Amino acid sequence: MTILADVVAFLDDRYPPAWAESWDRVGLVLGSFDAEVDTVLFVVDCVPETVEEAVSVGAQLIVAHHPLLLRGVSTLAPTTYKGRIVHRLIRAGIGLFTAHTNADVAAPGVSDALALALGLRDLRPLRPSAVSSDMGTGRIGTLPSKLTAAALVEVAARALPPTAWGVRGSGDADRMIETVAVCGGSGDPFLGDAMAADAYLTSDLRHHPASEFVSNGGPVLLDAAHWATERPWLDLVAAEVSGALPVRTVVSDIDTDPWTMHCSSPKEVR
Q: Is residue 226 annotated as involved in ligand binding?
């Protein structure tokens, strides 16, 4: 029999809370350490839809990437959004565990999974960690063969989970790309680090920094949906847990990206 304490111990050892940023909130959020766990659901976001998925698959634990309670709240009343989620989890007997920035810097971690989805080789950290030369935020790797920037955008769109956002590209479409930097989630703060690559794939890029970066000779930029860049890690951590503990693991494919509609502008100039 596996209990919640066993799963927490494994995840805390694999993704130590000390690796998380000081502002982050990781680890066990809800659940009794002696509760039996035979099914674990892995999600990017703990939202009502993924909570109901956990109920439907019979999970006793949700492992989420994004913290539900990142910032302080004054109430968990069921009349509030987060309160309703917490009450539903408790009523269903489902625990909640978060691995966020500690999973981002791990090796392998969130960005390794993203890099492997693109087929990148010879990975190294985009911004190395002080803890270890193998750890750090983001990854830089080499494509199996050179591609044009336009082709790389198409490869990324096929490799990542489908979203309404898709993948946007900025820069010279004909530029040949060999080295690619990636960062799962919001990679805007690491644009400077990505100068070492020919292209940089991440999410949540802002207009002005992206424009200046490309105009000043920076790498081609690829901007994908936040959820899509972090979803590949769920397969990695689920395999790690099922390989270490006798539990059933389920990976959620529910798209929790907030952008759900997209329409390309007409090509004709009016």
A: yes
Instruction: Give a yes or no: residue 233 inside a domain.
Output: no
Instruction: Looking at the structure, tell me whether residues 112 and 214 fall in a common domain.
Output: yes
The H or E element that residue 111 is part of is helix 110-117
The residue among 201, 166, 170 whose CA lies nearest residue 183 is 201
Rounded Cα gap, residues 5 and 2, in angstroms: 8
Residues 177 and 115 in one domain: yes
Of 186, 164, 166, the C-alpha closest to 100 is 186
Cα separation of 262 and 51, whole Å?
26
CATH number of domain containing 19: 3.40.1390.30
- What's the pLDDT band for 265 if we cut at 50, 70, 90? confident
pTM, rounded to two decimals? 0.95
Kindly state the DSSP code that residue 34 receives in the 8-state scheme: T
Residue with tokens 């066993």: 6
Q: According to the annotation, is 212 in a ligand binding site?
A: no
230 among annotated binding-site residues: yes
Q: Can you read off the two tokens belonging to residue 98? A: 């978060």
Task: Summarize pLDDT for 129-188 with one digit per residue, the tens.
Answer: 988 899 999 999 999 999 999 999 999 999 999 999 999 999 999 999 999 999 999 999
HSE (CB half, 13 Å, CA atoms) of 245?
A: 23
Count of domains forming the chain: 2
Omega of the bond leading into 108 within 30 degrees of 0 (cis) = yes
